[in-house]
């Protein structure tokens, strides 16, 4: 940590202590648990401890990328909003929301999907944080499997009932550093919490 | 609806149809269910059908206020971000995030709490949407019970482990139009979903 400022508010630390008491048995290592705990704090839903999946290289790759100031691309504005403060307090990575990059969707695509593909052209090795749009995650996975390019990390946490599980299965098939939320759950707050936890890990071990 | 544009994307309608199939028995009326369904869509968590509480006047007061372009005050930027698009598509209410109104917290208070109290001085009859900060909800409830002023609606959906349940209990004791999420659950996405559902109800019955 380059200065004395604490990244986590005292109330957040109190909240973490309660989660520590209540979590019970789990199979997460300490870095994985730091991420799960922040997600649980953000949702009050302990089920996330069982839903998170980490590729073996995910957290190390994420930390290295964050420190190298690799650009961060979110699918929607709400995820971007949820990480802006912590990015500004730490490594100041360039940060954009894919949906805000395009005013009109390409034919047959959603606006988020169109945006994420344009971002991948510009930042193929970026950190991708998907908290909302399964169409964006599916399109990103398709494009990656057609190319030799690999993002530094993909956080796959779209939420909902249509194409969400399929999009996460597509991500799981790729050999790319990734953190996923299995099943239907996820969301902007969850995706932002995962990235914020990674920023704290990267900063506190700087 | 003043023009032919659909407020809900076709994928959202598909998602709603799946929720309709899976929800099972509940005791919500049709407007309450419209709100619960949007929250379930946003979280993939059916528990919210049982956690939502509506004061008898809440939805009618909300609809009337939204149509009258009453200002909307959120606690944090992420809630504001989550409702910006739907507000712009409908009644264009003035929209601010309390935390963004102050750069330094008053002594002994959080920044969000300081911000919400300043907003209440300016907009005592506003629509308050709290998705994150229990300190802000507690401070707002205290100030309301000391005054004769009543907001048009309070959405009480802070999330977490510290002061969250207490803040919702304080809201429940007030005779103010309100929609609450009981217990620890809630969050920015949940608060935004409740307000967005209200905007759709107000617009489609315009």
Give a written overview of the molecule.
Two copies of one chain form a homodimer. Chain A is α/β, with parallel strands linked by helices. Chain A starts with 9 loop residues before the first helix and ends with a helix. The mean pLDDT of chain A is 95. The first copy, chain A, has helices at residues 10-22, 30-43, 48-51, 58-67, 77-89, 111-122, 134-146, 164-172, 188-204, and strands at residues 52-54, 72-74, 95-97, 127-130, 153-156, 178-181. Chain A has nine helices and six strands. In chain A, helix 4 (58-67) packs across helix 9. Chain A has one domain (52-204): Rossmann fold (3-Layer(aba) Sandwich).
Keywords:
homodimer; 206 residues; alpha/beta; Rossmann fold; six-stranded mixed beta sheet; 9 helices; 51% helix; 10% strand
Shape of chain A: globular
Overall helicity of chain A = 40-55%
CATH superfamily of chain A: Cobalamin biosynthesis CobH/CbiC, precorrin-8X methylmutase
Instruction: Give the helix tally of chain A.
Output: 9
Helical/strand content category of chain A: alpha/beta
The main pleated sheet of chain A reads as: 6 strands, mixed
Oligomeric nature of the chains:
homodimer
Question: Any idea what the CATH architecture of chain A is?
Answer: 3-Layer(aba) Sandwich
End-to-end gap of chain A: 6 Å
Radius of gyration of chain A: 16 Å
Order of strands, widest sheet of chain A: 1-6-5-4-2-3
- Count of distinct strands of chain A: 6
**CATH class descriptor of chain A:** Alpha Beta
Give the ordered list of helices and strands of chain A.
HHHEHEHEHEHEHEH
CATH topology of chain A: Rossmann fold
The chain-level mean pLDDT of chain A equals 95
User: pLDDT under 50 segments of chain A (min length 5)?
Assistant: none
State the largest interface. Answer: A-B, 32 and 33 residues
Strand residue percentage of chain A: 5-15%
Total of domains of chain A: 1
